[in-house]
Amino acid sequence: MARLDFSERLELLNQLHKQDVKQYLPFRHDEATLLCQLDKIDIGVRKFSELHASRQADSYQWLWLNEKVLIDKKGQLREMILTARSSEQNTAYATIINTGILVRYKSHQFSKTFSKGEPFRAYIRFTLNGLQAVPEKLAAFDLKEMGLA
Hints:
- There is one protein chain.
- The protein has helices spanning 6-19, 21-24, 28-37, 41-57, 136-145; strands spanning 79-87, 92-96, 102-105, 119-127, 130-134.
- The protein contains five helices and five strands; from the N terminus they run ααααβββββα.
- By secondary structure, the protein is an alpha+beta fold.
- α1 runs antiparallel to α3 (28-37).
- The two termini are 19 Å apart.
- The chain folds into two domains: 6-57, no CATH class; 79-145, CATH 2.40.50.140.
- A five-stranded mixed beta barrel has the order 1-2-3-5-4.
- The longest helix is centred in the first third of the chain and has 17 residues, at 41-57.
C-alpha cells in the first residue's frame, strides 16, 4: 500500500473498525485526516469534533498522528483560500472559502494581521483539536515530518 493512497488506507481503517474497535481507536485521527485528504473535509471536521469530545472524556487515549498537513495525491502541499472571521491575540478564526468550514489560526504565525472578511492563502495543518491554518513555512516543516520533502 502506498503512503499517498488515501482511499486504500481509509478502507483499511474501516475494516479494522469493523473487526476490532479497540485496535482501531488509536487511528481515529488518521481517519479524520484521510477524509480531509480525500476532499471530504466536512466529514473529516465532524470526525475531529467527535475525537475532541472523546479525548475530553479520556485524555489518556493514545493516537497515531501520521498525517500532519493537507496534501494532494502527489504529496504536494495544497494551498487553500480562507476568509478571516475574527482575530484574538493568540487564536483567530477563518472560513475555508466556499465551504463554511471554520478553521482556527494563530495570528502571530502570519506576517500580517487579517481584517474581518479579508481573504488570505494558507495551508491546513491537522491537530488533535481539528484543522489549523498555517503559513507555508510551517506546512513545509510538517511535510518534511511526514517524510515527503
